[in-house]
Amino acid sequence: MKKKFVVTIDGPAGAGKSTVSKALARKLSYIYLDTGALYRAFAYKVIQKGILPDDEKGLAALCSRIEIYLENIDGSLNVFIDGENVTKRIRSEEVGLVASTVSAVSAVRERLLSIQRKAGERGGIVAEGRDMGTVVFPMADYKFYLDAGVEERVRRRCLELLTRGGSADHKTVAGDLVVRDRQDQERKIAPLKASEDAIIVDSTCMSVAEVVEKMISIINSAYGLSHERK
Ligand code: DC
After folding, report:
1. pLDDT above 70 covers what percent of the chain?
2. Which of 20, 97, 119, 171 has the smallest count of CB within 10 Å of its CB?
3. CATH number of the domain at 6-35+93-205, please?
4. Ligand 1 centre from 121 Cα, in Å?
């Protein structure tokens, strides 16, 4: 039987990680794990409960009270918090920013770590986030770090918001993105960075299909096998 790999894709906001990870998972017939969704779900609860994102004690207390889990619905992982499926409700910029702030707190990262590891324990997964290759899956078979120029990332984020039917003010989106990058890169625990053994892919001038093609060819060439679903 073919070995089922753990593939990690880390990178900053708006680099195209979600689209690429989803497409890669589909091609490989693997599960797609969006770890940002877990941080967003937690942030959603923080906002709902009126807890301040920098209230470490309040966040730690919330960690011990909440029930958070992933469920496979029609081939994609949905995130539930206290029984509520919040998968679609967590995509706003506000939730993203709060997620970035609360994700710097160790109690929050610890609370979400085992859920992520459990999802990947059998392999056959494309895991997307900030610390996949460095902390969550240090023994991953393939590690990618997906980057893109800041202007291009802002453009993609605006497009994504508009596609979802929301509004996108270029200046606000650019400001939020820069704040989020800085918070994610400068936090003490599990900061956003490329693992030393990660393959860096700059997608500024590449289409999604080109990026996925490149990743597939790297995965296949190392083993001389085709892992792509025909
Ligand atoms: O990928 P995203 O935009 O959905 O992530 C939202 C925030 O969650 C991100 O700004 C930082 C945090 N996050 C994290 O700290 N570690 C991860 N593995 C994934 C997300």
Report:
1. 96
2. 171
3. 3.40.50.300
4. 21
Distance from the alpha carbon of residue 182 to the mean position of ligand 1, in angstroms: 12
For the chain, the domains span 6-35+93-205
The residue type at 90: I
Pocket test for ligand 1, best of 19, 21, 35 (most atoms within 8 A of CB): 35
Ligand 1 pocket residue status of 11, Cβ below 6 Å: no
DSSP letter for each residue of 113-169: HHHHHHHHTTS-EEEEESSIIIII-TT-SEEEEEE--HHHHHHHHHHHHHHTT----
pTM over 0.85: yes
Asked if residue 101 has its Cβ within 6 Å of ligand 1, the reply is no
